[in-house]
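Q: What residues go here?
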C-alpha cells in the first residue's frame, strides 16, 4: 500500500544515459493526459539543495572526501524531500525526480566504497522514510554514455574514471534485481522515441494496476 496519494517516480542511470531528457518527456506526456506533475532533480530542487548542488558538482573541489560528498548529498536530499517531494505527494501529485537515493548507493556506496549500512541508515533519516513507487533505470554501457557527453563541460562526478562509472552501472543493475518490484530497466541505447514510449507504457500500466 502506498504511503501518499500521489505517485513518486525516480530516474536513475550512469552519466549520459538520457534520464534528464526522458524525465522531462515523461512529465510533459503525463501533463498532456491531465495529471498534476512536479519535475525535479537531485542534487537540487529547492534553493538550499541547489546551492549544495553547486558545491558537489564543481570540479574545483577535487579534494572533497567521499564522506563529505555523501553527507552533502544527504543534506540536499533531506531539504528536497521535506520541502518539495512529500508536500506534493500528499496533495496527490505525480513527482518525477531525476535521481534519488539509489544514486548515493551506486556512486558513494559501490564506487566510493563507503559503508552501505551507514548510507542506508542516513538515507532513512534524510528522506523521512520516503521511497519511490517506481524507479526507471536507463541502462547502457559506460563507453556509450561517455561518448554522449564528451562535447560538454564535465562536472566533478562526470570526470571520474571509466572504472568508477562501471562500478556505478554494476550497482544499478544489482539494485534493479534486488528491488525488482519497483525497478523497471529500460535499454537506453535505442532511439529516443522508443525509450520514451517504453517508459510511458510502464508508468501508465503501473498506475492502472493500482486501480484494480
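A:
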Amino acid at each position: 500500500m502506498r504511503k501518499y496519494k500521489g505517485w513518486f517516480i525516480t530516474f536513475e542511470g550512469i552519466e549520459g544515459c538520457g534520464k534528464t531528457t526522458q524525465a522531462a518527456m515523461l512529465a510533459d506526456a503525463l501533463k498532456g493526459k491531465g495529471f498534476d506533475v512536479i519535475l525535479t532533480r537531485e542534487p537540487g530542487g529547492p534553493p538550499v539543495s541547489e546551492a549544495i548542488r553547486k558545491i558537489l558538482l564543481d570540479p574545483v573541489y577535487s579534494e572533497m572526501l567521499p564522506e563529505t560528498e555523501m553527507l552533502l548529498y544527504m543534506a540536499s536530499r533531506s531539504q528536497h524531500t521535506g520541502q518539495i517531494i512529500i508536500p506534493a505527494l500528499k496533495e496527490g501529485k505525480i513527482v518525477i525526480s531525476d535521481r534519488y537515493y539509489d544514486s548515493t548507493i551506486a556512486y558513494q556506496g559501490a564506487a566510493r566504497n563507503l559503508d552501505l549500512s551507514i548510507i542506508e541508515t542516513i538515507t532513512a533519516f534524510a528522506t523521512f522514510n520516503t521511497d519511490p513507487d517506481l524507479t526507471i533505470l536507463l541502462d547502457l554501457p559506460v563507453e556509450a554514455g561517455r561518448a554522449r557527453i564528451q562535447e560538454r563541460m564535465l562536472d566533478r562526478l562526470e570526470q571520474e574514471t571509466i572504472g568508477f562509472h562501471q562500478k556505478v552501472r554494476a550497482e544499478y543493475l544489482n539494485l534493479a534485481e534486488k528491488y525488482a518490484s519497483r525497478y523497471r530497466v529500460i535499454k537506453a541505447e535505442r532511439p529516443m522515441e522508443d525509450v520514451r514510449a517504453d517508459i510511458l507504457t510502464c508508468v501508465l500500466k503501473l498506475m492502472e494496476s493500482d486501480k484494480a
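A: Context that may help when evaluating the design: The radius of gyration is 16 Å. The domain at 7-211 is CATH 3.40.50.300 (Rossmann fold).
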